[in-house]
Write a structure and sequence with these properties.
mainly alpha; two-stranded antiparallel sheet
């Protein structure tokens, strides 16, 4: 999962989330289009939120959780987000980092991701 820019024929632009096969993730795309055009948010807002939603969906997939039900484990996502590198090696997909080690993302980034995730499910 990753953020991906979309250029519309009108010249407007927003960001969405695509999966590993570059297919648009419908729930993320619908919400990000709503933010951009229904709520008049900037392109950069959709870029930031698309990245946050991609993190969340990647975590859900890696841990076998459905995104619709994963909110119950938000604390685990927060630890993963704070301490796990962006690209975990295929040979070791398990999170082994945590409190007591140096975080790879600061509070500001974690809070930005959580703001994005909060909106996609609502």
């Amino acid at each position: 999962m990753r953020a991906f820019p979309v250029d519309l024929p009108s010249g407007a632009r927003y960001w969405t989330v695509v999966d590993d096969e570059l297919c648009v993730v419908p729930v993320a795309d619908q919400w990000l289009r709503f933010l951009r055009f229904g709520r008049s948010r900037t392109e950069l807002t959709t870029r930031s939120y698309a990245g946050g939603v991609a993190f969340y969906l990647r975590w859900c997939r890696a841990t076998g959780r459905r995104w619709e039900e994963a909110a119950a484990d938000m604390g685990l996502f927060m630890v993963w987000l704070r301490y796990s590198p962006s690209r975990l090696g295929a040979e070791n997909p398990t999170v082994v980092w945590g409190p007591g080690t140096k975080p790879v993302r600061g509070e500001r980034r974690v809070n930005g991701v959580l703001a994005a995730v909060r909106g996609v499910g609502g």
